[in-house]
Design a protein that fits this description.
single chain, alpha/beta, Rossmann fold, 3 domains, eleven-stranded mixed beta sheet, ten-stranded mixed beta sheet, 25 helices, binds adenosine-5'-triphosphate, P-loop_NTPase, ATP binding, FtsK_dom
Length: about 950
């Protein structure tokens, strides 16, 4: 029993222990589960919090973005003075193309960006503190930024575009000389329409907004474009007295009861006139006209009715008011009715102390009125600007919105400025007037006017419709901008030719006129073939043909005609022909000069002058207009008198010309036109009188040598034919060694291109020796067979033995230095070589330093020059060339640097001017040939 009891106890203990162990295990498990659950709960809570924070942040960012977008849109709708806070307000036009700005009258209550618990939101703004950023408002833009709590930091973060900047905080009340509700830079502004869009009623509770609204209206557009008519029967308009300065400039009138009818009638008449004459059925409103043309030919007129007892108005006045209400806005006439008169037009948009019918649901906090001093200063400045005259139109405002939309079939039209009435002044070229004379003393703005004209033409007409040839005889490069250059690689796609620095190269003017005459002939022939009498008909009959109108502009053209010589005679003849016949063939001349009065060659030909019916006189121009027309004496600076009736008094138009020459105005336009250029449009040919052309690698036809570049539109090479025939030698005449050496090198190198030739070189002038040696080396590289001779008699002796039927050149530098030392046999051999050599294909290209020395070598005083068909004179005067020249007394030739007069009896009727090429680029350097250090 005792055992049994003991066993039972043992079992009971064992069971108790096991149960205890199991209970322990269960408790551990439960504890672990609890720990796990709490960890998970903590984790979930964290995730949940983060999710909430993320969503909050996203929401805040979306709100902020929306807010900023709204602020940015507001800044655009009410730019500059239309939206700036009074703290930094100044008259500043933000008026662009299209309709007028909206005007700020306050803020949307509680529209500031409210804080949230999200981490990326700015901290809260104290609701009663108004802030303005002087930096933001001084840019003229409406404040659109938000930032940190100014109270906390004293600094403000502003964001302008991508840039983030800090600016000192200035904390001011909305209307800071009154206790009006605060305005913050981050609250949404309340903008209302007036100009171009609406009339307005202002309740007495909102009357404080009137002066601010009017100030914004007059300040946000160019000075003088808003006229205020204030009807103030009780003379209560004290708040508008600060605008008084506008009155003196005719921009503000106060009207009492006695003036009311007249004002209403006159405004109704204005609406009628604007509709009939300005909009003329082409545009529905002035706003539409401005959007289409970029111009505002009429001011806005605002009739303010202060506490008018409308019910007591006579029926006529009420009817006129109703007319203005119905039709005024389109014609720029707006009504602002102030007061609580219920008899007034009930349906006008209405501003109260807390709301505006155009912003339903929004509670407004109106800005306080601007400080009196701000109004006074602004009114004064606007009045002064207005009295000083209209701001000149900008070039960009005169250009068409769409490029190249016009056809030149009937003529060429271009805006060049504005008349005093603000109308765009256009110039026409076509059947009438066909050509233009532009005159004005130096600095009066001729070149600028030509730029403006060219800008207008090049924007209206595509390069298929218009081709320009531009020549400037002045020293300087005013037309160089039209050609592709190193600094600016663009060009004006219409320009076919630009000539600059051509004051000494009158022949280039001649070349242009000859080129135009050739074009005239081509057009006349085509017209005949199509039985057309003028360009318009030719274009209709030959729609596939390329018949652009041509405008040739010659600045300082008096230079072309200033000397009594063959050049002037031919130029005048060509001008006469072009002026007479160009009209019908679409070739128009624009001649500009600082001294039209002094061009005798012109005034001696009344029939020539008569063709130039379009006259443009810049200030102080003489004789451009008719003799009794003195308008140019009084026309203002940067204006022009435009007259398309040959200068008769009754056709004068005074036109303000924009600044078209300034790079800021010109370069963007040229870039735009250049980018629009058609495929295949080539840059214009550029002739620069100051530039020495380099010999290029171009090869002339076989058995031909080049001598230099001709002065013509195509910049061709002057050719010397080297075929077997008597006389095919060349004499270079004059003492300029470098140019003579360049001509000989050019001739030999070009003759050697593409064919095997033999060359004998004899250089008797030390100054030319290094060039001659370099030439010898270059010719050998070209594959020519070159023999060098130290003495002239070596060249002459047995010359015929060298003739083997292959083209052979004798290049003799300073023939006369050697010929004087020849014995009689040598002299005879020289003459025989000159006379008979060419028939054996041995051509002498010799340089003689004077005409008598050449003559001496050809046989003395009575010698003929038959052995030398071609000559090229450098520094030899015209009369000295008489024996060689077809003209008795010699050619009209005035020697000048880097120019030669070339005549080939076999080819030319008259000598032509050539520019010897620079050959250095085609020759090895002298050090390489002479073993110099
Ligand atoms: N409408 C204008 N608005 C502003 N500046 C102008 C205007 N017209 C001319 N100018 C400026 O006046 C100066 C002289 O103008 P421009 O070169 O056109 O005169 P010009 O009669 O061609 O003189 P010149 O014969 O000496 O070249 C230039 O600096 C030009 O920028």
């Amino acid at each position: 029993m005792g055992d049994e009891l003991g066993r039972a106890r043992g079992e009971a203990r064992f069971l108790a222990e096991r149960t205890a162990a199991e209970a322990e295990a269960e408790r551990d498990k439960a504890e672990r589960a609890i720990t796990d659950a709490s960890r998970k709960q903590a984790q979930l809570k964290g995730i949940h919090e983060r999710m909430l924070a993320t969503l909050e942040a996203r929401k805040a960012a979306a709100v902020r973005d929306g807010h900023e977008a709204a602020l940015a849109a507001a800044a655009k709708a009410a730019p500059a003075a239309a939206g700036a806070l009074w703290s930094a307000w100044q008259p500043e036009s933000g008026l662009g193309r299209g309709s007028a700005p909206l005007l700020r009258i306050g803020r949307i209550a509680d529209s500031e960006l409210m804080p949230s618990s999200g981490p990326s939101l700015p901290p809260p703004h104290p609701p009663t503190t108004a802030t303005a950023l002087s930096a933001a408002t001084s840019t003229g833009r409406a404040p659109v930024e938000s930032g940190d709590d100014p109270g906390a930091s004293g600094k403000f973060r502003i964001r302008s575009g991508a840039a983030v900047a800090s600016a000192d905080l200035s904390s001011v009340a909305g209307g800071y000389d009154n206790p009006a509700p605060p305005v913050t830079t981050i609250s949404l502004p309340a903008l209302i329409p007036l100009l171009d869009r609406s009339h307005l009623r202002i309740d007495t509770t909102a009357a404080q907004a009137l002066s601010g609204l009017l100030l914004r209206a007059v300040g946000a557009v160019p000075a003088g474009l808003v006229r205020l008519h204030v009807y103030d029967p009780e003379h209560l308009g004290g708040s508008l007295s600060a605008f008084a300065a506008l009155g003196k400039a005719g921009l503000l009138s106060f009207i009492g009861p006695s003036g009311l009818r007249e004002t209403l009638d006159s405004l109704v008449e204005t609406v009628r006139r604007v509709n009939a004459e300005v909009l003329a059925g082409e545009h529905a409103s002035l706003a539409e006209l401005a959007a289409a043309t970029g111009r505002r030919p009429e001011p806005w007129r605002v009739l303010v009715l202060l506490n008018a007892d409308l019910a007591s108005w006579p029926a006529h006045d009420q009817a006129q008011l109703a007319r203005l209400r119905r039709t005024g806005v389109a014609a720029g006439v707006h009504l602002v009715v102030v007061g609580d008169d219920t008899a007034g037009p009930a349906d006008l948009p209405r501003l109260t102390g807390t709301g505006y019918t155009g912003l339903p649901g929004a509670v407004l906090e109106l800005d306080g009125p601007p400080p009196q001093s701000t109004i006074t200063a602004a009114a004064k400045s606007i009045a002064e600007k207005h009295s000083a005259g209209r701001e000149p139109a900008r070039l960009v405002d005169l250009l068409p919105q769409r490029l190249w939309a016009a056809s030149s079939a009937t003529g060429l039209f271009a805006a060049i400025g504005e008349t005093a009435a603000g109308d765009v002044a256009r110039l026409a070229l076509g059947d009438n007037p066909p050509h233009a004379l532009v005159g004005g003393p130096s600095g009066s703005g001729k070149t600028n006017l030509l730029y403006a004209w060219i800008a207008g033409l090049a924007s209206n007409y595509s390069p298929d419709e218009l081709a320009l040839y531009l020549l400037d005889f002045k020293e300087g490069v005013s037309f160089a901008r039209f050609a592709s250059g190193r600094r600016d690689p663009t060009w004006l796609p219409h320009v076919r030719l630009v000539g600059v620095n051509i004051n000494d190269d009158r022949e280039f003017g001649l070349a242009l006129l000859r080129h135009l005459k050739e074009e005239l002939r081509r057009r006349a022939e085509a017209a005949k073939a199509h039985e057309a009498t003028k360009l318009e008909e030719l274009r209709a009959a030959d729609p596939e043909g390329h018949w652009p109108r041509i405008v040739a502009v010659v600045d300082e053209f008096q230079v072309l005609l200033e000397t009594r010589d063959a050049v002037t005679d031919e130029a005048v003849q060509l001008l006469e022909d072009l002026a007479r016949r160009g009209r019908s063939q679409g070739i128009h001349l624009v001649l500009a000069s600082q001294d039209i009065a002094g061009i005798e060659a012109l005034w001696g030909r009344p029939s020539l002058v008569a063709q130039f019916t379009l006259r443009i006189a810049l200030p102080k121009a003489r004789r451009v207009l008719a003799e009794n027309n003195h308008a140019a004496d009084t026309v203002a600076r940067f204006h022009a008198v435009v007259n398309d009736e040959s200068g008769h008094c009754n056709a004068n138009r005074s036109v303000a010309i924009p600044n078209a020459g300034h790079a800021d105005a010109w370069e963007p336009l040229q870039k735009r036109l250049w980018e629009a250029r058609p495929i295949g449009n080539e840059p214009p040919a550029l002739f620069d009188g100051d530039h020495v052309p380099d010999l290029t690698a171009a090869a002339p036809p076989p058995e031909t040598a080049l001598l230099g570049q001709t002065i013509d539109v195509a910049s061709r090479g002057a050719e010397l034919a080297l075929h077997r025939a008597p006389g095919r030698n060349l004499a270079i005449l004059g003492t300029r060694a470098t140019e003579a050496a360049d001509i000989l090198a050019t001739a030999a190198l070009t003759a050697a291109r593409g064919q095997r030739i033999g060359v004998d070189i004899c250089c008797l002038e030390p100054d030319a020796a290094s060039s001659a040696l370099a030439l010898a080396a270059a010719l050998e590289t070209e594959g020519a067979e070159v023999d060098w001779h130290d003495q002239l008699d070596e060249v002459c002796k047995d010359w015929d033995r060298r003739c083997d039927g292959v083209l052979r050149l004798n290049l003799v530098y300073a023939v006369d230095a050697g010929s004087a030392r020849l014995d009689p046999a040598g002299t005879a051999a020289l003459r025989a070589m000159l006379i008979d050599g060419p028939e054996r294909h041995l051509h002498t290209l010799g340089w003689w330093r004077s005409v008598p020395r050449l003559r001496e070598d050809l046989g003395g005083f009575s010698a003929r020059f038959d052995a030398v068909d071609a000559w090229l004179a450098l520094d030899v005067q015209g009369p000295e060339l008489a024996p060689l020249s077809p003209a008795s007394g010699g050619p009209a030739w005035y020697p000048r640097e880097r120019r030669g007069l070339y005549f080939d009896r076999a080819r030319h009727r008259v000598p032509q001017v050539v520019i010897p090429y620079r050959t250095t680029a085609q020759l090895p350097r002298p050090e390489a040939v002479l073993d110099l250090p």
